[in-house]
Write a structure and sequence with these properties.
- This protein has one domain: Glycoprotein, Type 4 Pilin (2-Layer Sandwich), CATH 3.30.700.
- The longest helix has 39 residues.
- It has 150 residues and is an alpha+beta fold.
- 33% of the residues lie in helices and 16% in strands.
- It starts with 11 loop residues before the first helix and ends in a 19-residue tail after the last strand.
Length: 150
């Protein structure tokens, strides 16, 4: 009696289906991961610029005007993903102050590369608004900002 040998392994069509499924999953997952990474990088800009709020309010309370230089109220003006944090407008005045964080051009997610995030206060530092600055030409897209800043 002859034994019938049964083939083992996958057929070509089965392998093609698996590759197609992996491709579809990658097409969905990669953009989501890139957005998540960019949001995490923007968190650094929010943290660095928010670190100046208390010092700015204290400076205003003591002097009646906003500081001329951001280093007057803090030390850290850059980070791993943030190129600079600076006073954009309102320095040395008693009006509106705008603190702007600019993301680095390299080493950050493509959606936030070189873009800016702003904090502003019109009432002596008692309340701060976060988000983007209309005067800046390269604002961080709202989808990368926390819900409170949109």
């Amino acid at each position: 009696m002859r034994k019938i040998r049964q083939e083992e392994g996958f057929t070509l069509i089965e392998l093609m289906i698996v590759v197609a499924i992996i491709g579809i999953l990658a097409a969905v997952a990669i953009p989501s991961y890139q957005d998540y990474t960019a949001r995490a990088q923007v968190t650094e800009a929010i943290g660095l610029s928010s670190g100046f709020k208390t010092g700015m309010a204290e400076y205003y309370s003591n002097n009646g005007i906003w500081p001329t230089y951001i280093t007057s109220v803090g030390e850290t003006t850059s980070g791993k993903y943030v190129a600079t944090v600076a006073i954009l407008s309102g320095a040395g005045t008693s009006g509106t102050i705008v603190i702007q964080a600019t993301m680095k051009s390299t080493g950050v997610g493509g959606g936030v590369s070189g873009s800016t995030y702003a904090l502003s206060s019109v009432n002596e530092g008692k309340h701060w608004d976060c988000g983007t600055n209309a005067d800046s030409g390269n604002n961080i897209a709202s989808r990368y900002l926390p819900g409170a800043c949109k």
